[in-house]
Design brief:
There is one protein chain. By secondary structure, the protein is α/β, with parallel strands linked by helices. The chain folds into two domains: 120 residues, Thiolase/Chalcone synthase (Peroxisomal Thiolase, Chain A, domain 1, 3-Layer(aba) Sandwich); 242 residues, Peroxisomal Thiolase, Chain A, domain 1, CATH 3.40.47.10. 37% of the residues lie in helices and 21% in strands. It is built from 13 helices and eleven strands. The strands form three sheets. Strands 1-7-4-2-3 form a five-stranded mixed β-sheet, with helices on both faces. Strands 8-11-10-9 form a four-stranded mixed β-sheet, with helices on both faces. 54% of the residues are buried.
Length: 388
Amino acid sequence: MHTNDFGNVLIAAGVEVPYRRHATAASTGDLLARAFGAVLAQSGVSAKEVDGLGVASFTLTPDHAIDLAWQLGLSPRWCMDDCHGGASAINLLQHAIRAIQHGDANVIALVSGDRFDAADFKRLVENYNLTTRTYLRPLENGGPNSVFALLTQRHAKRHGLTRRDYGALCVAQRAWAALNPNAVYRTPMSLDDYLAAPSVATPLGRFDCVPVVSGANAVLVMRSDLARTRSNVGVRALKCLYNADHQAGDGLHTSLQQLAADLWRQAGVTPDDVDMVSVYDDYPVMAIAQLADLGFAPDGDLRRLLSRIVSRELPVNTSGGQLSAGQAGAAGGMHGLVEAITQLRGEAGERQVRDAKLAVVSGYGMVEYRYGMCANAVVLEKAGGHAP
């Protein structure tokens, strides 16, 4: 295992409560409780050993992390709420690692998820933050679809891309989803299917817009000497940078562009060394932007990058990503992290990447007036552990 300042902490489990297009659980709390139980079962840890809890959710309110801790029967020494949307999971992971390193907790469960009815999602989009509620909702702008439609137009013009290029990513991820029994959308999709889909906001069609579902995810982080299984995951590097452009940029780059060099330097590897990638994919343009910012298109040739993704030379969003597995609110920020953990544990079934030992995961989100304010990334490695 690579030696760095994360070496005394392991990720012992990562799980997903299967996403559903139509909510079946009674509440968001029920989904989070199911995720908590599943992550304990995978790790072999009992609830009484958990002394830290981190929660990311849009719809758990008016409850918070401490309310959920009480409902789960926990008395945590470390407790955290997170509201960073697509960047929430890696943000929580960063704080959990430091808490364990400094003795604030030994075993921390991180859970995220949301239960959505149509009215819940509409309420979220219209009241996402004060800026949205005050300036955008009165315009009836249609939420983030219109913002990212304009961004896609700008990105396409800058790089000479067409709808077929963005569609190639969607089709590639749908092919991965066909191998994932937990993905909500598994029906095979061709490029012609993609191009024929109804328009949402030019140039975005139906398959460019992340589908809203209900579900939850959970990750268990713990002191390495307490690990119970041999299927653990280590952290080689983790970097976060928020509000890098103060909403004054053109949106074509994320904060990952500024932090990438330090991320790879800390990890002691390069983009060419990784076996799989999970990037936050609320829209194809943002998946491509994050990959480029992380260094996967060093020559700036995005069509070459897309060709590598389609051929699976570079396995990207092997769960199908949110574009095909669905976006379960705040759980979307943890979806890619759990997929990377699953791949590194060798438990991805038909979609397993052969000999996957190294992965990078990025988070992105929290749109203010224009674009996402948050971006972060973590480099993970397959690690050993203690036998039961």
